[in-house]
Amino acid sequence: MVKSVVFDMNGSIYHERQVKELCALHALNNLFQEHGFTKQELDQICYSLSPDVWINPHKSLLGLGNYDINVIMAALQRKGHEAVWFDKRRDPKCLCLDNIEGFILNVPTEYKLGFVLLPLKRRHWVALRKISGTFYNLDSKLETPQLIGKDNELIAYLKEQIDSKEKELFLVVSREVDSKQGWLIDPYLQSKIQNDTDQDSIQYIEDSLPSDIDLQDNATDKRDCQS
């Protein structure tokens, strides 16, 4: 594993670079800015998710990594965090960035064997987070972290990324924030609650009638009055 601490005007940045297919491992460690997880730990999570199978569906058959989102979610839970899938129909402006620990972006990537480009597609995990007031792309395939900028630049960057149908975005938040949907800015959250309430308040006319009224008997009485 290639680890480095990069220094810039905002201080030090922990950055792991790509080894094998361990991008999920690097994304997690880059997100938390420490060597917190190991390959052995993520492998153990895979076995706990699918304990009674010959071929584990959550990682590479060759043992090179290639972990799926279930492994990432389980690893985050060990740190008291949750991964929230971001609906790309939303505008990233709805995000309350102060309540979000970071982001994990899933992107398609080309697969190479040495210098040979193979006709295969792999999924690649990328961590984004704020460090000393500035957001960075901590992609393990980069030589050094890539500066994104302040809040407005991040929103524009996220918008550009999720405009691609092949990319998926996950928010990393604490359990408390997840339980209260605190990753949404208040006006958006209130709007969502109101929409849910409006849907719950819809009822059929029959639902508002007293339960002791027999609709069939009423229909008979009405015909008798008309005759």
Automatic annotation (TrEMBL):
It holds the Pfam family Josephin. It is an enzyme of class 3 (hydrolase). Its main location: cytoplasm. It comes from the Eukaryota. It catalyses: Thiol-dependent hydrolysis of ester, thioester, amide, peptide and isopeptide bonds formed by the C-terminal Gly of ubiquitin (a 76-residue protein attached to proteins as an intracellular targeting signal). The keyword rRNA-binding does not apply. GO terms for molecular function: cysteine-type deubiquitinase activity. GO terms for cellular component: cytosol. InterPro entries: JOSD1/2, Josephin. The active site is at C23, H124, D139. Cleaves 'Lys-63'-linked poly-ubiquitin chains, and with lesser efficiency 'Lys-48'-linked poly-ubiquitin chains (in vitro). May act as a deubiquitinating enzyme. This is Josephin-2. It comes from Neodiprion lecontei (Redheaded pine sawfly). The lineage of its organism: Eukaryota, Metazoa, Ecdysozoa, Arthropoda, Hexapoda.
